[in-house]
Write a sequence for this structure.
């Protein structure tokens, strides 16, 4: 059995992965909250942004954490199609969860269904990402620990969606994001605790791409997307702010053109 190390770079990778998980959760919560106060196309667009934020945040957290994973006696490479598929699964299943909450008629049922689906999607993303790992050997899993990681994922997803539809203040949303970052990061490391590696003498070169060739640039790109989108959402006005601006504009027009308004009223 190969000796594994989850902290090859010390606490740098767990810390960075936690930051990415918090960033994705914070942006996703904010966008879902915006969606619930919007209607029509605006609601759909906010939910799509929330799905992209949460899904890409979880995926980036996973692969940033994986930079600290090493196995003695073998290099690690990644199957590119499976790695991309894990990202697509994360975004699509998260999207199903937030749309279930965003459009569900029954809040409690929507939360349970959305949390279950999103949690299973997070777990699927994790184990698809692990299936993409190529080493000189085989990877097996302890079933009980895998089951525990799935339960953590479902609990974390349900809590995130509950927070998205319940929390109304920025301070509370920030606290919820920090808690969600812990939950998602815990799910990752619980899942990694299930891993058992059996080494096989190297006979051929490993296929796939090295982490620095493919995964690192993609993770940096998604991280940049999260922070840029966060800045956009933070600067964009809320529905209440837009309504207040429109009301102020109407009052200003009435102040400068009272006769015109009186004439129209009389007509």
């Amino acid at each position: 059995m190969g000796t594994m190390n989850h902290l090859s770079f010390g606490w740098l990778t767990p810390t960075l992965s936690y930051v990415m998980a918090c960033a994705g959760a914070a942006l996703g919560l904010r966008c879902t909250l915006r969606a619930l106060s919007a209607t029509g196309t605006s609601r759909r667009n906010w939910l799509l942004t929330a799905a992209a934020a949460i899904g890409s945040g979880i995926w980036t957290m996973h692969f940033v954490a994986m930079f600290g994973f090493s196995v003695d006696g073998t290099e690690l490479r990644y199957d590119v199609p499976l790695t991309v598929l894990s990202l697509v699964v994360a975004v699509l299943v998260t999207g199903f969860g937030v749309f279930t909450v965003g459009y569900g008629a029954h809040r409690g049922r929507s939360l349970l269904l959305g949390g279950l689906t999103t949690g299973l999607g997070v777990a699927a993303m994790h184990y698809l990402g692990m299936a993409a790992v190529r080493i000189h050997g085989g990877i097996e899993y302890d079933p009980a620990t895998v089951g525990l990681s799935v339960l953590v994922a479902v609990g974390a997803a349900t809590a995130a969606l509950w927070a998205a539809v319940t929390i109304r203040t920025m301070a509370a949303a920030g606290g919820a994001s920090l808690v969600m970052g812990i939950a998602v990061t815990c799910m990752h490391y619980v899942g990694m605790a299930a891993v058992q590696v059996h080494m096989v003498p190297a006979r051929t070169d490993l296929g796939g791409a090295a982490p620095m060739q493919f995964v690192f640039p993609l993770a940096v790109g998604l991280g940049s997307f999260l922070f840029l989108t966060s800045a956009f959402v933070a600067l964009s006005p809320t529905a209440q702010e837009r309504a207040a601006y429109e009301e102020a504009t109407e009052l200003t027009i009435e102040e400068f053109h009272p006769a015109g308004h009186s004439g129209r009223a009389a007509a």
Notes: Residues 241-248, 262-267 have pLDDT under 50 and may be disordered.
